[in-house]
Amino acid sequence: MRARNFGSTTFIPALLTLLTLSSCVGDQGNLEPGALGDAAHGETSDASDVVKDSRGPETDERDGGEPDTSPRTDVADAPATDVTHDDAPGDAPVDAPVDAPAGWVLTWSDEFGGADGSAVDATKWNYDVGAGESGWGNNELEYYTSGTDNAVVRGGSLVITATNAGASKYKCSYGPCKFVSARLTTSGKFAQKYGRFEARMKLPRGKGVWPAFWMLGQNFPATDWPDCGEIDVMENIGDEPSICHGTTHGPGPASYVDVGLTGQVTLPGGKALADDFHVYTAEWEASAVRFYFDGALYKTVTSKDLPSGAKWVWDHSFFVLLNFAVGGDWPGSPDASTKWPQTMEVDYVRVYRAE
Ligand SMILES: [Ca+2]
Q: Which residues have CB less than 5 Å away from ligand 1 (the ion)?
């Protein structure tokens, strides 16, 4: 999500997003044909999981070109040994028993299996409320609410809804707010150093949307950004409906701080990330962070990738954030083509440690 301020004084210049966009052009790490789905739990970060050029026709061959749209609501009856049943692309949330991928031990999760209409588990999640200083550091347009107005458990998922309806009763820096949405964090309730952080999500669509699944050092905000460190497991903007970005941010030279170390993956076949659920994963260890999409590795960040003067700060506990931003420096403002409300659906968040 890049720098957030949580009410602190963090301010990130608009230049950040421009640099980030340009940096991604030559930083492709796209999916090997057939790697999706079958390669779930692809924790073996084999270089063969990555192809260098997504523009070739072979990238349209995922699952033979057909999305997995089979219903997922009956997986609770599946054999316990089937550990891949609930983390493939698909069109429905699941609440299957959690079978840890080989080599990993589950340490924290939320399956969002509560009653329809209920709030998130308060023992696990906090609400970040308000418009944030400078629109959460990015000139975002939304006001984040608490309670169930914009974040509710429904159908086995956390559903974060962003909409324009009712937003004007809140005050934003630019005047009456134009949008309401929600932002949840585990700060102070759960944080972990290293491991596998994973969420299965169905993203919103339309110009100006900016959903994110990300992490910040638990030392934030006492230690300000970027020194606290940031791992963006998934970011997407509406202008790029098929592209997931994975990024680390930390301290160093100005241009590096703005951009981070980032990779992207493009869903083949012109499909949008809003069409189906997909699994977004980061695996993190002492000197590396690996980003996966539907189990396929698309970007690895290591300490060797740091520019001169940069510091490796991914060496302490991080907490988890889920939010649905609207507008801001990177995605730009919604326009008349954006349909409201939009939803970011989170089937689950699961965190593991290495065995
Ligand atoms: Ca679920």
A: 93, 95, 111-112, 156, 347-348
87 alpha carbon – ligand 1 mean position (Å)? 11
- Residue 281 belongs to what domain range? 15-32+101-354
Mean confidence (pLDDT) of the chain = 81
- Ligand 1 centroid–CA 32 distance in Å is 28
Q: How far is CA 284 from the centre of its chain?
A: 15
Span 86-113, pLDDT tens digits = 566 677 776 665 689 999 999 999 999 9
The CATH number that applies at residue 130 is 2.60.120.200
Query: Is residue 223 domain-resident?
Result: yes
CA–centroid distance, residue 48 to ligand 1 (Å): 31
- Interatomic CA distance for residues 303 and 299, integer angstroms: 14
Structural domain count, the chain: 1
pLDDT per residue over 241-259, tens digit each? 999 999 999 999 999 998 9
C-alpha 105 – ligand 1 centre gap (Å) = 19
302 in a structural domain:
yes
Structure confidence at residue 96 (pLDDT):
61
> Is the C-alpha dihedral spanning 177, 182, 188, 193 positive or negative?
negative
Dihedral sign, CA of 297, 303, 304, 306? positive
For residue 48, tell me if it sits in a domain.
no
> Does residue 133 carry a catalytic annotation?
no
58 in catalytic set: no
- Name beta bridge partners: 234: 213
Q: Read off the pLDDT of residues 39-70 as tens digits, 9 standing for 90 and up.
A: 333 333 333 333 333 333 333 333 333 333 33
Q: What would the two tokens of residue 267 be?
A: 């869903």
Task: Assess if residue 82 is contained within a domain.
Answer: no
